[in-house]
Amino acid sequence: MSAVRFIPRRFTTVSRSLRFTSSLRGRAGVIRSYAAAAAAEKKNASTPTVKLTAEMYPEIQRDSRFAKLEEEDLAYFRSFLPDHAVVTDDTVGFNIDSMRKYRGQSRLVLKPRSTEDVSKIMKHCGERKLAVVPQGGNTSLVGGSVPVFDEIVISLSAMNTIRSFDDVSGIIVVDAGCILESTDNFLAEHGYIFPLDLGAKGSCHIGGNVATNAGGLRLLRYGSLHGSVLGIEAVTADGTVVNGLGKLRKDNTGYDVKQLFIGSEGTLGVITGVSVLCPKRSSVVNVAFFGLDSYEKVQQAFVRAKSELGEILSAFEFMDKQSQVQVAKYSERQKPLDEQHNFYVLVETSGSDAAHDGEKLQNYLERLMESDLIEDGVVAQDETQIKSIWTWREGIPESLGRAGGVYKYDVSIPLDELYQLVDDTRELLIKAGYEIGTESSNIVDVVGYGHLGDGNLHLNVAIKNYDKKIEHTLEPWVYEWIQKRQGSISAEHGIGFAKKNYLGYSKDPSMIKVMKEIKQLFDPNGILNPYKYI
Ligand code: FAD
Ligand code: MLT
Ligand code: ZN
To answer: Which stretches in the chain have pLDDT values below 70?
Structure first.
């Protein structure tokens, strides 16, 4: 294959003999994987120390109903778990979250190897009233995966076996601790794809994905996990194993209890196994990346993508200029586009006919050019270039966190007003007297990007140091802004610790009441992931 195709600026009729450039070709990955970056950060003594959540939020008190860990508890866990699965010495990485915003004080991490182990752990913790936090890859962006006080961390990392795969139906059954990327690699060997993809794929677990009902980069194509998860096995607060690991697409026998676990963020039970319906992997994937000068044009490009790319459209991601400036700061890769644009869009198509799909995408881009919607763009010509372009999108969260931390807002609002939130937030901070992006200012930048195809914006305020004054300027202002537009304060990252006080901005009191009743039913003593969610 030849190299990336540049669509020259202001081309009105894009011909088949476009200029070619090898700008992205053959450059190795430079934005490191999330896991590698996190590990490097831990070693870097100059990174700011993460304050204890209990110190940052003194208004939250440890619940005195919970017991404190004793030697007898450790002895019990050691009676059925190997020594290395009862971690008491190096618990730091399990206490600090991926945004370096929250830090718990757990003295114990348990690494069960089987559903039976989890059941024994939960039965004991239930009887003793020991609070627990189920933890997957610890990539939560709402502080959901780390303890607040001394909760025991139950890490699913040792439960990572693919239990079965049926290559006729595409149904996979996995342990909750299977890493998303490894599972997808396994599926690729069989011509299938996992119906979820996200930037943290190298670290996050399928159990964690299900527990957060993660959305990711291709929800527009494959839908939500509420549709593709067929069954769940979970252990509730008293050690009961709820076996709902069905493998049926259609099953109308009673309440669909598994749906409650999807998005429950470790508050109803520990998910130990999941069955998922996986689609066939597309044999032909194309990716285009282009620059536009206004958000209005981004929306128009999206509407056109839906009608002109139709069934092959698999992702439509947008990014603003500021987000790409941050990625460029840390990437050694050459930018996909040399010139700066106010907005960028990544469009992916997935189909099975190279000529047909290529022509469709080409026609779509030509029409956008003719209508003066896009300013400049590239189309990846091979797998390396596809990965390279995706890095400019997937690398945003990590780049934003590099200066110190991020105030993250993950919202759903009607598309026409989606980006307005970024402009209004910037204005709010300036009016409040903050400088943005200067050498001496704490605020690095205010950026917006996200899954436009799903009506989902990620508003991020990147900062050098977490600061309660900035937080109080932003919250609840952001949530009020969203409420006025009947939006959701969490489109995909969940509620966790960060948003638990703000649920009422998106959910009616009658719904919150039902949620509390459900929690009470599954976990009457509240030992599962306390201080969060509701
Ligand atoms: P953790 O972070 O360990 O846990 C998350 C929550 O689930 C916690 O409340 C925890 O208690 C609970 N939990 C975990 N495992 C279990 C289990 N087995 N049983 C019960 N409860 C459990 N999210 C998106 O939706 N879309 C994205 O595009 C996206 N991109 C991301 C990119 C980056 C770089 C990062 C760092 C995060 C991203 N996220 C995204 C956040 C997302 O929620 C997580 O990446 C992922 O779904 C969480 O999986 P995990 O295994 O890391 O779970
Ligand atoms: C993303 O879309 O990149 C993720 O949801 C992570 C984030 O918002 O930072
Ligand atoms: Zn996202």
So the answer is: 1-48
Tens-digit pLDDT profile for residues 414-434: 999 999 999 999 999 999 999
pLDDT at 38: 46
Hey, is 376 helix, strand or coil?
strand
Instruction: Yes or no: say if 446 and 427 are a contact pair by the CB < 8 Å rule.
Output: no
Q: Which residues does a 6 A CB cutoff place in the pocket of ligand 1?
A: 34, 98, 133-141, 144-145, 156, 176, 198-200, 204-205, 207-209, 211-212, 214-217, 265-266, 270-271, 397-398, 492-493, 496, 529
Q: Any idea of the CA torsion for 379, 382, 387, 391, to the nearest 10 degrees?
A: -30
CB 419 within 8 A of CB 282: no
Measured CA to CA, the distance from residue 409 to residue 411 in angstroms comes to 6
- pTM score: 0.93
Q: Residue 123 belongs to what H/E stretch?
A: helix 115-128
pLDDT digits (tens, 9 = 90+) for 266-294: 999 999 999 999 999 999 999 999 999 99
Q: 3-state DSSP call for residue 354?
A: helix
Which residue, by CA, sits nearest to atom 5 of ligand 2? Answer: 216
Nearest alpha-carbon partner for 173 in 80, 271, 309: 271
Element (H, E) at 504: none
313-320/405-412 β-pairing: unpaired
**pLDDT for residue 48:** 53
Question: What is the set of domains in the chain, with CATH numbers?
Answer: 4-35+282-397 (3.30.70.2190), 36-155 (3.30.43.10), 162-277 (3.30.465.10), 403-498 (3.30.70.2740)
**Cβ atoms of 308 and 360 closer than 8 Å:** yes
Ligand nearest to the CA of 142: 1
Atom of ligand 1 nearest to the CA of 177: 18
pLDDT of residue 252: 95
